[in-house]
Design brief:
The chain is of the alpha/beta class. The protein has a single domain, classed as 3-Layer(aba) Sandwich (Rossmann fold). It is about 40% helix and about 10% strand. The protein is built from ten helices and seven strands.
């Protein structure tokens, strides 16, 4: 899939995020929107997966460590063909397979349940180790929030991954700079993020704009060249990306749009779509 095609898909993910959280009247749009591009890159370009054979033991794995951004992952999974896009309007409804945090027992395409921050990376490390022990070639990817990496378990997992030289593991940090209580640098600064991962024997790739598909493409291609150590991609993003009144606003970490805000958000994304179609 070409870069322009991926960009259009990412905009569709953003529409799905707004649609789902609006229908649920709850959820986490801000961090879902900032990660929309990487969700699409992973599921449409990077990972070896097949919705028609979703349990193939040789498939690549993905763990959404920042599980509250499930609306973005669900939208990507729907677009990839794991379930109907129409299901996104059932987000967080009783009886729906799309709950507030990923549940692998109910949602097609999920490799791990997640939600308790800090724990997803440990699961991903375990999967990567299993691949090594079983002499399998699949790769494991996990997405963390920059607020999430304030959790000590993240660094315990990183220490293990570095020690075991798990070069089939790619840890992605969505560095949008904001968490539920405000600026991550003010709440409990994780900076410098890259130097911390380097200290745990990771190869670090910094991405200046993680909402730029070409930069993501370059970064993920670079991970393929790394041997003997895990990789951390630290990408700078915009929380609420694509929706004018949500961008860089911590208040949209876990607030759903009302009817009026929904209409404005969808109009914003329609304009993005029109601009992309003109390229």
């Amino acid at each position: 899939m070409t870069i322009p095609e991926l960009q259009k898909k990412a905009n569709e993910v953003r529409k799905g995020i707004i649609t789902g959280t609006h229908a649920a009247k709850s959820g986490h749009p801000g961090g879902s929107l900032s990660a929309a591009d990487v969700f699409i890159y992973l599921y449409f370009k990077e990972m070896n997966i097949d919705p028609e054979d979703e349990k193939n033991p040789d498939r690549d794995r993905f763990v959404l460590s920042k599980g509250h951004t499930a609306p973005g992952l669900y939208a990507a999974l729907a677009l990839r063909g794991y379930f109907p896009v129409e299901d996104l309007t059932t987000l967080r409804h009783i009886g729906s397979h799309l709950q507030g945090h990923p549940c692998m027992q109910h949602t097609p395409g999920l490799d791990m349940s997640s939600g308790s921050l800090g724990q997803g990376i440990s699961a991903a490390v375990g999967m990567a180790l299993a691949a090594k022990l079983n002499k399998k070639d699949y790769r494991v990817y996990t997405l963390l929030g920059d607020g999430e990496i304030q959790e000590g378990q993240v660094w315990e997992a990183a220490m293990f991954a570095g020690h075991r030289k798990l070069d089939n593991l790619v840890v992605i940090v969505d560095n949008n700079g904001l968490q539920i209580d405000g600026n991550v640098a003010d709440v409990c600064s994780p900076y410098p993020i890259d130097k911390k991962f380097e200290a745990f024997n990771f190869e670090v790739i910094n991405v200046a704009d993680g909402n730029d598909m070409e930069q993501l493409d370059e970064a993920f291609k670079a991970t393929r060249k790394v041997e003997g150590k895990p990789v951390a991609i630290v990408m700078k993003t915009v929380k609420g990306k694509g929706v004018s009144f949500m961008e860089n606003q911590a208040g949209w970490h876990g607030t759903a749009p009302n009817d009026e805000q929904y209409a404005i958000a969808m109009e914003d994304l329609k304009k993005v779509e029109e601009a992309l179609c003109q390229k």
